[in-house]
């Protein structure tokens, strides 16, 4: 089974994956001596810094520009970069044809080098709310007054309501992940037919 080649550059990309796509540019054919240069730059306060580059090769018909770059952007941190493409020829003529200022690089989770824990918002909020709730349980008072300043501790019922909400969001996320992976999401009961 042959792999389907994309006709566009990706909107986001996992660090170290193979960059595989082809472009159809009838005005800049490989058979006429044109190639495409793809550049990834990092925008910093001191200016744009080029961090990765790839040049297309012609396909077997010399009609399409093909990118097949293994281990593309390896070693770069996850984040937002600028992706740009330009066509150029041997005579030195070049034209910019594409710019994406919000190109997203994602950590390669399979290599074990991800720099931050990969948690959803629900997981993060649940952890914080559970810590807050445990702290509230330890306290012996709900309000106190010290030197004419009144301090009121967070409402325990409000924290429990927030925990309940974020647990329901997390359950929905798990169901979506299971459905996306071809498993029963857990909220669907299979039909049972009885004849009789």
Question: Your description of this structure?
Answer:
It is a single chain. With 196 residues, the chain is an alpha+beta fold. The strands form 3 sheets. It has a 5-stranded mixed beta sheet with strand order 1-8-7-3-4, with no helix packed on it. A hairpin with a 2-residue loop joins strand 9 and strand 10. The chain is elongated, with a radius of gyration of 27 Å. It starts with 11 loop residues before the first strand and ends in a 16-residue tail after the last helix.
The span between the termini is 47 Å
Low-confidence parts lasting 5 or more residues at pLDDT below 50? Answer: none
Whole-angstrom Rg: 27 Å
Compressed to H and E, one letter per element, the order equals: EEEEEEEEHEEH
Largest sheet: 5 strands, mixed
Name the overall outline. elongated
What amount of the residues lies in strands?
25-35%
Which structural traits does this protein have?
alpha+beta, 22% helix, 2 helices, 3-stranded antiparallel beta sheet, 196 residues
Give me a quick take on this structure.
The chain is α+β, with helices and mostly antiparallel strands and 196 residues long.
């Amino acid at each position: 089974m042959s792999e389907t080649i994309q006709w566009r550059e990706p909107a986001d990309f996992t660090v170290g994956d193979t960059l595989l796509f082809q472009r159809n540019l009838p005005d800049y054919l490989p058979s006429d001596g044109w190639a495409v240069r793809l550049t990834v730059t990092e925008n910093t306060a001191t200016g744009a810094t080029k961090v990765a580059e790839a040049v297309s090769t012609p396909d077997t018909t010399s009609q399409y520009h093909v990118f097949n770059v293994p281990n593309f952007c390896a070693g770069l941190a996850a984040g937002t970069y600028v992706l740009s493409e330009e066509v150029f020829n041997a005579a030195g003529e070049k034209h910019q044809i594409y710019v994406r200022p919000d190109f997203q690089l994602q950590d390669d989770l399979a290599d074990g080098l991800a720099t931050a824990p990969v948690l959803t918002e629900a997981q993060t909020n649940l952890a914080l709310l559970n810590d807050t709730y445990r702290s509230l349980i330890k306290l012996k008072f709900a309000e106190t007054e010290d030197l004419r300043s009144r301090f009121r501790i967070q409402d325990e019922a409000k924290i429990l309501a927030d925990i309940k909400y974020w647990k329901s969001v997390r359950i929905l996320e798990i169901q979506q992940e299971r459905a996306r992976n071809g498993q029963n999401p857990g909220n669907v009961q299979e039909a049972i037919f009885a004849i009789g």
